[in-house]
């Protein structure tokens, strides 16, 4: 689960992380009132969407020369002007895709005179089983660009969970950022507070870009992106209240109701698989055969007939889907349960698109018999390679180029 910048800053502030004063606003009037609560004479008006690159983004409804989704205001009237231009408009950034996202919330913050910007992030390093701290002197830039063009400017420090954060970690981060004296001490303190927040919220990512030195010699978090481990949501019901469903894909929201792992993609072949690794392999082999997957969907290891039916219906609710590949390895999950769910869903939605099913594992023959006796036009496959070739061919035949 991701949250908005203003929510991230409010959360980090509870752990003692230094952030500028700011207030969220859902309307132009609220934006003006928020600005009046701040000292000025400089304010920052920020569009709140779950995507990066807001400052360099553009609004579909405005001219190409219009300013982006992060703007400076030198008066209350300018705050009003910027808020009126942003709210209700569609902001397109490098991360939203061409469709963009509608701005429904703003964040009005104190303006800060910046002397230097840095990048700092805490992430889960799954290879080492540790928290990785990524630091760079190139703040304010896309870290992907920095990694590609000047990788030597990125330093990664890992923290062993057995020892936790140690003083030498703070010194290493300060050195990576080129800080000394009081600023080095501040960097260590900021890292300690971020580490506490990371553990305290079961975060999967805390990205600070930029972490800035102000003209007063203070380190401040000027932008924050926070994501949480969905597997730990049960421990943080308060964080669930921060979820903004308007920022999420409707199909992904529906999938979460059934505890399905679903991510919409840009292709035309829907995938239903059990197991994340098998799902990735299925998508890869679809691409290998010259087509594109329409989604990632993992039904899990012990899905019920109802869960499988829901998964099938979610795939079919995507208008881009022109064919479906079901790839199931029945270990904990039984192939006959999968087959019953497929048949039930196909009949309920009156399936017309090509459907290829590859089953292997527990009760595989019973599953194949259920599909064969269903009376539906289901194409069986012997293995994953065979399944991918058949669904790609079937879609091409059904939808002539």
Automatic annotation (TrEMBL):
Which positions in this protein are listed as binding substrate?
A: 274, 331-333
> Which pathway does UniProt place it in?
Carbohydrate metabolism; tricarboxylic acid cycle; succinate from succinyl-CoA (ligase route): step 1/1
Query: Which residues does the UniProt record annotate as the domain ATP-grasp?
Result: 9-55
Q: What is the enzyme's main class? A: ligase
Molecular function via GO:
succinate-CoA ligase (ADP-forming) activity
- State the SUPFAM superfamilies in the record: Glutathione synthetase ATP-binding domain-like (SSF56059), Succinyl-CoA synthetase domains (SSF52210)
Q: Where does the chain bind Mg(2+)? A: 209, 223
Residue positions annotated to bind ATP are 46, 53-55, 112, 117
Q: How does it assemble?
A: Heterotetramer of two alpha and two beta subunits.
NCBIfam families reported in the protein's UniProt record: PRK00696.1, sucCoAbeta
Q: What protein name is recorded for this chain?
A: Succinate--CoA ligase [ADP-forming] subunit beta
Q: Which gene encodes it?
A: sucC
